[in-house]
Amino acid sequence: MKTLDLTQQQIEAIEYLSNLVVLACPGSGKTTVMKEKIRKSIPALLSHQGVIAMTFTKKASAELKKRCKSDGFITKQSFFGTIDSFCLEEVIFPFLSHLWGGHPSKCKVITELTTSQKIFFKKTYVAPTLENIVNDEIGFITLYEQNFLWIDSLAGLALYILEKSTAAVRYIKAKYKFIFIDEYQDSSRAQHELFMKFIDMGLIGTAVGDVDQSIYQFRGSDPTCIEELKADPKFKFLSIDQNHRSHVSIINYASRLLNPLYLTQPCEEIRVFRGVIVGNPIQAAKKISKLIERITLANESINYSDIAILAYKTISLNYIAGGLGLDYRLYNDTPLEKIETPEAALIRDLLGFRFGRVTTMQEIFDLHFIYSNLSKANLLKIRKMLIEFRKIEISQISNIVIEILALSGVESDCHSELEALTSILGNENYIKNFMPILTNEVQLMTLHKSKGLEFHTVFHIDLDDWSFPHREYTGGWDDPPVYPQYKQDLNLHYVGITRAKEYCLLIQTTKRFNKQGAEKNTHPSDFLKLPHLETLYKNFKQVDFSLRSIVVTY
To answer: When comparing pLDDT for 60 and 281, which is higher?
Structure first.
């Protein structure tokens, strides 16, 4: 077994076994801390007990579960999954019928309310809280009676059940003793209230997050929740603030970006570069290609896949892809990404298994069937179908997926999910998203999608005014700039920079394309005008992009 080389900050967080809130900066090893805390909590539990380990994506939860179970460690009856999946599987499906009747497990989980469904409610909600559900109970009951559950309401609905059902409370208290939540800064107010309910029920809670990486307020997250935990006397507050990922010059730049008074660390070499590339994003991509070739030639151990081009806007990545003279992987949302139902998630992972991104059949079962009530016969049939699934022709995929959905007990209409599947199977670029990453592919993705990832070198584009930060048009192009979501965009810029381990290049192009596709002159992004960042970066040449000013040494 590998011996962990832990810092004192990490050890303190792992050893503390009461309620804890941890602020963890990028590259601080927070997943290792979560894993070790979970493994430290489980041995004293009874065989029927476990911990709740919740993250915001199934991919992150699968990785955490894999790491927790390494070396044959037994996690007992622990739950690893998203907050929404926990609410559904452990609270709503088993107990909502006690309050509202019906059959919750037969409901279709929807991501958006239709116009006809919106009229059920008194108000418009983003992430309904317990108070919202109580005050608008008839609206939520009406939606449920039509066999729909709205995904944004799951946390509030789970808390509603726990407030009204003693059986639900007894079940949770008997089965779980600890609760862990990662990326807490992305929690909604309803999810925060649910977490605090578990604490009031006697579970010991650990929340890990970073306010500076809060980038999802547009979809209902509330970063003040983690600040409230810091101030709550029921919680101990610890900070893990050592970035073990990035070169010190990148840490200095990113830290000063957020805090103009940050005291930089000693640094012999600066590896943050700024540059202006003459031309539009398509033309810039050709010049970036040459630089990527220089970087990989300088060190044979660096592959194209170790290099990422990050953008604020998806359209910018499409332009870059059009001019890039190298193989690439463009992470565009497929039609299934826009459908956040359990059925869509299952289809996504089935495609990942068929085309190789999901490596084992067991991953499918761990993600989708481990907490199901399916019969052994149906589970065996699904397993047999998956054995042959990788061998079938693309033309056969839809029929097999339909059969697996039927065996999974799906009784709701999956028309939109199957329509999305058809679109994906007819598009080579979509299919590529489900294949393993190749070493000769440069990674192209939005800043949002880069969260949680790391790369040897990062190219951060879109750094021109009107592109990033988002600027609002107020009636005249020469009006004083208005940035309606400046702090969110600043955090997003910080996330992009801190994905880089060795080199970070911040790029402005002299031309941009507007929404109509017309070329426009650009001015530097406001992020490139911040005076407290001077001396923390180097410039590369503007005209020929020869990059003689960048000495790539290893």
So the answer is: 281
